[in-house]
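Researcher: Dear colleague, please comment on this protein.
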Amino acid sequence: MSPHSRLPHLSFRRTPARALLLSAALSLGVLLPGTASAQTAAPAPKPAASSAATTEAASAIAIEVSAAVKGQIVSCPTGLKLSPRAVCLYVPSSVASLRPLIAGKLSGRTAGGWKTSGKASTLLVSQKAGGPLGAFVLLSALNDKESLVVVDAAQAKVAAAKPATPAGVTKGQPYVLGRDLAGVVNVTSQGGGNYRLTTEEGSVLAVTVGRKSAQTSSGTVELPLAPATDGTNLIFPLDGLRSLGCTVTPAGTNLTVACGADSVGLRPIVF
Protein backbone atom coordinates (compact mmCIF):
# COMPACT_ATOMS: atom_id res chain seq x y z
CA MET A 1 0.00 0.00 0.00
CA SER A 2 1.37 3.43 -0.87
CA PRO A 3 2.29 5.54 2.17
CA HIS A 4 0.23 8.34 0.61
CA SER A 5 -3.00 6.37 1.12
CA ARG A 6 -2.20 5.55 4.73
CA LEU A 7 -2.08 9.16 5.91
CA PRO A 8 -5.76 10.17 6.04
CA HIS A 9 -5.22 12.99 8.51
CA LEU A 10 -3.12 14.99 6.08
CA SER A 11 -4.60 17.40 3.56
CA PHE A 12 -3.73 16.94 -0.11
CA ARG A 13 -4.62 20.53 -1.02
CA ARG A 14 -1.75 22.74 -2.11
CA THR A 15 -1.80 26.47 -2.57
CA PRO A 16 0.09 28.01 -5.51
CA ALA A 17 2.40 29.76 -3.04
CA ARG A 18 3.51 26.46 -1.52
CA ALA A 19 4.02 24.96 -4.95
CA LEU A 20 6.29 27.88 -5.75
CA LEU A 21 8.20 27.30 -2.51
CA LEU A 22 8.84 23.69 -3.47
CA SER A 23 10.07 24.76 -6.89
CA ALA A 24 12.34 27.27 -5.22
CA ALA A 25 13.82 24.49 -3.12
CA LEU A 26 15.43 23.04 -6.21
CA SER A 27 17.14 26.32 -7.02
CA LEU A 28 18.57 26.30 -3.49
CA GLY A 29 20.45 23.07 -4.20
CA VAL A 30 18.19 20.62 -2.38
CA LEU A 31 19.66 17.41 -3.77
CA LEU A 32 20.53 14.04 -2.35
CA PRO A 33 24.18 13.54 -1.40
CA GLY A 34 26.10 12.54 -4.51
CA THR A 35 23.31 13.56 -6.92
CA ALA A 36 24.16 15.91 -9.76
CA SER A 37 22.66 19.40 -9.56
CA ALA A 38 19.45 20.01 -11.45
CA GLN A 39 21.05 23.09 -12.99
CA THR A 40 23.84 21.19 -14.72
CA ALA A 41 23.59 19.83 -18.23
CA ALA A 42 24.34 16.22 -17.30
CA PRO A 43 21.33 14.37 -15.85
CA ALA A 44 21.60 12.81 -12.40
CA PRO A 45 22.00 9.02 -12.36
CA LYS A 46 18.79 7.09 -11.77
CA PRO A 47 18.50 5.52 -8.29
CA ALA A 48 18.91 1.77 -8.08
CA ALA A 49 15.73 -0.24 -7.59
CA SER A 50 14.79 -0.90 -3.96
CA SER A 51 13.81 -4.32 -2.66
CA ALA A 52 10.24 -5.02 -1.52
CA ALA A 53 11.42 -5.19 2.10
CA THR A 54 13.19 -1.84 1.83
CA THR A 55 10.14 -0.22 0.24
CA GLU A 56 7.87 -1.56 2.99
CA ALA A 57 10.24 -0.21 5.64
CA ALA A 58 10.29 3.21 3.97
CA SER A 59 6.49 3.30 3.93
CA ALA A 60 6.31 2.55 7.65
CA ILE A 61 8.96 5.16 8.45
CA ALA A 62 7.17 7.74 6.29
CA ILE A 63 4.01 7.25 8.35
CA GLU A 64 5.96 7.78 11.59
CA VAL A 65 7.68 10.91 10.29
CA SER A 66 4.49 12.42 8.90
CA ALA A 67 2.71 11.88 12.21
CA ALA A 68 5.58 13.57 14.06
CA VAL A 69 5.90 16.66 11.84
CA LYS A 70 2.18 17.03 11.02
CA GLY A 71 2.94 17.96 7.43
CA GLN A 72 0.92 18.23 4.24
CA ILE A 73 1.60 15.78 1.42
CA VAL A 74 2.78 17.52 -1.75
CA SER A 75 4.17 16.40 -5.08
CA CYS A 76 7.88 15.62 -4.88
CA PRO A 77 10.17 17.89 -6.95
CA THR A 78 11.31 15.94 -10.02
CA GLY A 79 14.88 17.22 -9.68
CA LEU A 80 15.39 15.10 -6.56
CA LYS A 81 15.32 11.85 -8.60
CA LEU A 82 13.28 10.01 -5.98
CA SER A 83 11.53 6.66 -6.25
CA PRO A 84 7.81 6.60 -7.21
CA ARG A 85 6.93 5.74 -3.60
CA ALA A 86 8.74 8.67 -2.01
CA VAL A 87 6.69 10.84 0.34
CA CYS A 88 7.21 14.61 0.32
CA LEU A 89 5.72 16.81 3.02
CA TYR A 90 5.33 20.56 3.33
CA VAL A 91 5.80 21.51 7.00
CA PRO A 92 5.26 25.03 8.40
CA SER A 93 8.21 24.66 10.78
CA SER A 94 11.92 25.45 10.60
CA VAL A 95 14.55 22.83 9.80
CA ALA A 96 16.23 23.55 13.15
CA SER A 97 13.05 22.56 15.01
CA LEU A 98 12.38 19.51 12.83
CA ARG A 99 15.82 17.88 13.20
CA PRO A 100 15.49 17.02 16.92
CA LEU A 101 11.78 16.21 16.52
CA ILE A 102 12.37 13.63 13.78
CA ALA A 103 15.54 12.24 15.39
CA GLY A 104 13.64 11.79 18.65
CA LYS A 105 10.78 10.00 16.92
CA LEU A 106 13.22 7.60 15.24
CA SER A 107 15.56 7.29 18.23
CA GLY A 108 17.56 4.06 18.33
CA ARG A 109 17.07 3.35 14.63
CA THR A 110 19.21 6.02 12.98
CA ALA A 111 22.65 5.49 11.46
CA GLY A 112 24.43 8.28 13.30
CA GLY A 113 23.08 11.82 13.23
CA TRP A 114 22.05 14.24 10.54
CA LYS A 115 24.53 14.60 7.69
CA THR A 116 24.59 17.99 6.01
CA SER A 117 25.77 18.52 2.45
CA GLY A 118 25.21 21.97 1.03
CA LYS A 119 21.65 22.95 1.92
CA ALA A 120 20.33 19.40 2.46
CA SER A 121 20.35 17.37 5.69
CA THR A 122 19.96 13.59 5.50
CA LEU A 123 19.21 10.99 8.17
CA LEU A 124 19.50 7.24 7.46
CA VAL A 125 16.95 5.09 9.28
CA SER A 126 16.21 1.41 9.96
CA GLN A 127 12.67 0.12 10.46
CA LYS A 128 13.83 -1.78 13.55
CA ALA A 129 16.71 -1.17 15.94
CA GLY A 130 19.77 -3.02 14.66
CA GLY A 131 18.09 -3.81 11.36
CA PRO A 132 19.23 -2.92 7.83
CA LEU A 133 18.79 0.62 6.56
CA GLY A 134 15.27 1.01 5.25
CA ALA A 135 14.85 4.68 4.41
CA PHE A 136 16.38 8.11 4.44
CA VAL A 137 14.81 11.37 5.61
CA LEU A 138 15.82 14.51 3.71
CA LEU A 139 15.24 17.99 5.14
CA SER A 140 15.48 21.31 3.35
CA ALA A 141 14.54 24.82 4.44
CA LEU A 142 12.13 26.59 2.08
CA ASN A 143 12.52 29.68 4.25
CA ASP A 144 13.04 30.45 7.95
CA LYS A 145 9.66 29.00 8.95
CA GLU A 146 8.83 26.39 6.30
CA SER A 147 10.52 23.14 5.28
CA LEU A 148 10.35 20.30 2.79
CA VAL A 149 10.57 16.82 4.34
CA VAL A 150 11.25 13.82 2.10
CA VAL A 151 11.11 10.13 3.05
CA ASP A 152 12.22 7.52 0.52
CA ALA A 153 13.64 4.00 0.43
CA ALA A 154 17.34 3.79 1.24
CA GLN A 155 19.37 2.76 -1.78
CA ALA A 156 22.95 1.59 -1.84
CA LYS A 157 24.12 4.80 -3.49
CA VAL A 158 22.46 7.00 -0.89
CA ALA A 159 23.48 4.86 2.06
CA ALA A 160 27.12 4.93 1.01
CA ALA A 161 27.21 8.66 0.34
CA LYS A 162 28.86 10.91 2.87
CA PRO A 163 29.18 14.67 2.77
CA ALA A 164 32.66 15.89 2.03
CA THR A 165 34.59 17.00 5.10
CA PRO A 166 35.10 20.78 4.89
CA ALA A 167 38.67 21.97 4.92
CA GLY A 168 39.99 22.94 8.33
CA VAL A 169 37.68 20.89 10.55
CA THR A 170 39.10 18.45 13.10
CA LYS A 171 37.63 14.99 12.66
CA GLY A 172 35.90 13.54 15.69
CA GLN A 173 35.22 16.94 17.28
CA PRO A 174 31.73 18.49 17.67
CA TYR A 175 30.73 21.52 15.62
CA VAL A 176 27.52 23.47 15.07
CA LEU A 177 26.28 25.24 11.96
CA GLY A 178 25.80 28.96 12.35
CA ARG A 179 22.24 28.70 11.00
CA ASP A 180 21.31 26.17 13.72
CA LEU A 181 22.06 28.80 16.37
CA ALA A 182 19.21 31.02 15.15
CA GLY A 183 17.27 32.27 18.15
CA VAL A 184 20.25 32.40 20.50
CA VAL A 185 23.18 33.65 18.40
CA ASN A 186 22.99 35.94 15.39
CA VAL A 187 25.69 34.98 12.86
CA THR A 188 26.62 37.60 10.25
CA SER A 189 29.07 37.02 7.42
CA GLN A 190 31.36 39.98 6.85
CA GLY A 191 33.13 38.53 3.84
CA GLY A 192 36.61 37.10 3.45
CA GLY A 193 35.91 34.28 5.90
CA ASN A 194 35.11 36.72 8.70
CA TYR A 195 31.98 36.31 10.84
CA ARG A 196 30.42 38.27 13.66
CA LEU A 197 28.48 36.37 16.35
CA THR A 198 26.21 38.30 18.72
CA THR A 199 23.71 37.40 21.46
CA GLU A 200 20.65 39.26 22.77
CA GLU A 201 22.63 40.06 25.92
CA GLY A 202 25.17 41.99 23.84
CA SER A 203 28.05 39.51 23.78
CA VAL A 204 30.08 39.85 20.58
CA LEU A 205 32.61 37.48 19.04
CA ALA A 206 34.45 38.20 15.78
CA VAL A 207 35.95 35.07 14.22
CA THR A 208 37.85 34.17 11.07
CA VAL A 209 37.69 30.83 9.29
CA GLY A 210 40.90 28.88 9.89
CA ARG A 211 42.00 30.91 12.92
CA LYS A 212 41.65 30.02 16.61
CA SER A 213 42.22 33.61 17.66
CA ALA A 214 38.97 35.59 18.03
CA GLN A 215 37.98 39.04 19.24
CA THR A 216 35.48 39.92 21.98
CA SER A 217 34.54 43.34 23.32
CA SER A 218 37.08 42.69 26.10
CA GLY A 219 39.97 41.61 23.91
CA THR A 220 41.42 38.53 22.23
CA VAL A 221 40.37 34.99 23.14
CA GLU A 222 41.59 31.62 21.92
CA LEU A 223 38.97 29.20 20.58
CA PRO A 224 39.45 25.45 21.20
CA LEU A 225 39.31 24.82 17.44
CA ALA A 226 39.41 27.04 14.39
CA PRO A 227 36.05 27.77 12.72
CA ALA A 228 35.48 26.44 9.21
CA THR A 229 32.94 26.81 6.41
CA ASP A 230 31.35 24.60 3.77
CA GLY A 231 31.10 27.56 1.43
CA THR A 232 27.66 28.52 2.72
CA ASN A 233 27.52 28.03 6.48
CA LEU A 234 29.83 28.91 9.33
CA ILE A 235 30.97 25.68 11.02
CA PHE A 236 31.74 26.67 14.59
CA PRO A 237 33.38 24.54 17.31
CA LEU A 238 30.77 23.66 19.93
CA ASP A 239 33.05 24.46 22.88
CA GLY A 240 33.75 27.88 21.38
CA LEU A 241 30.24 29.00 22.34
CA ARG A 242 31.51 29.50 25.88
CA SER A 243 33.41 32.54 24.61
CA LEU A 244 29.98 34.13 24.08
CA GLY A 245 28.88 33.25 27.60
CA CYS A 246 26.64 30.44 26.34
CA THR A 247 26.18 27.12 28.13
CA VAL A 248 25.80 23.70 26.52
CA THR A 249 23.70 21.05 28.30
CA PRO A 250 23.05 17.45 27.16
CA ALA A 251 19.37 16.78 26.37
CA GLY A 252 18.98 13.12 25.46
CA THR A 253 20.67 12.56 22.11
CA ASN A 254 20.75 16.31 21.48
CA LEU A 255 22.08 19.40 23.23
CA THR A 256 20.53 22.55 24.60
CA VAL A 257 22.48 25.75 23.93
CA ALA A 258 21.51 28.61 26.24
CA CYS A 259 22.73 32.18 25.85
CA GLY A 260 21.22 34.26 28.62
CA ALA A 261 17.44 33.77 28.65
CA ASP A 262 17.38 32.29 25.14
CA SER A 263 17.94 28.61 24.36
CA VAL A 264 17.70 26.24 21.41
CA GLY A 265 17.94 22.47 21.01
CA LEU A 266 20.27 21.08 18.37
CA ARG A 267 22.42 18.12 17.44
CA PRO A 268 26.13 18.82 16.92
CA ILE A 269 27.93 17.74 13.77
CA VAL A 270 30.92 15.42 14.05
CA PHE A 271 32.94 14.92 10.87
User: Anything to note?
Assistant: Residues 1-51, 156-162 have pLDDT under 50 and may be disordered. The domain at 174-270 is CATH 3.30.457.10 (Copper Amine Oxidase; Chain A, domain 1). The first helix runs from residue 16 to 27.
